[in-house]
Amino acid sequence: MTGERVHRIAHETEIAAPAGVVYGLIADAESWPLFLPSAVHVELLDSGTGEERIRAWSVVDGTVRCWISRRVLDPERRRIDFRYDPAPAPARMMRGDWRVEERGAHACRLVLRHEYGVPRDSPGEAAWIGRLLAAADAAALERLRESAERWTELDGLVFSFEDEIRVKGPAELVYDFLYRVGEWPGVVPHVVGAELAEEEPGVQRVAMEVRGADGVVRPTESVRVCFPHAGRLVHKQTLTPRMVAARTGEWQVVPDTSGVRVVCRQTVLVRAEEVRPVLGPGAGLADARRRLRAELGRQALDVLDLARHHAESAVPVIHLS
Question: Exposure winner among 49, 110, 165, 235, fewest CB in 10 A?
Fold first, then answer.
């Protein structure tokens, strides 16, 4: 490649889990926010036979970045090739592959490789990209290993739920309330404090002080990606409670013929080793799921009710006699 130098970096890890399980975690890109530390949100843009194009938002070096990747999936060889299109700056080209090598019925090796091209006269940029990839790849492999090795429990560790309300008011006002999260302290009961940073329009970093069901105020942090024209706001909690390994969600505002339907969907990956320290020696996954469902659902309904009030109180009610 004229004027460019191609750099290569590879990481691997041994995993005590079936190769098919590991491949499945990698192939399901829309679930990456649960299993990859840096991933915030992934959307499937299009797909064909063995190929797909995804858009992903990730936290890279403390900044939320968006990129598009083309992937070729080969489940028989348990290999996924990918290429960024376009390559994230300052790289001129970036591609790579995932490989899952079977080592037995319940053992495999996972290899992640990257190749990236930068101008030959930019060694500093090449080194910077290398450091970012090294840190991100190592963290991704470690989290995937931890998750895959609990493969017999994953159906219990991951659970999803939703809460919804109907609003007789403008969808735009409902979305407005959900978007202005920095104004929630003093309005939403469980939100004690909030600091909002919007690095670019529609991408929000939020640090909150949240009061739990036990009355204790704890810090939490999230990244939110907003799609106002679609009435959607997706989020990932990046600083989680002890029992939560990962938590993602989506607020959706859907107008219909009878008003507005507002839905809060959430998915949680339970941190199994923290269940008994938090809930007591006799507690299990079912107890953790019930506790988290109740508390997170209560918080969601508080926000939904206030969004409804915000929208409906702005609409004059005319009584005909």
Answer: 49
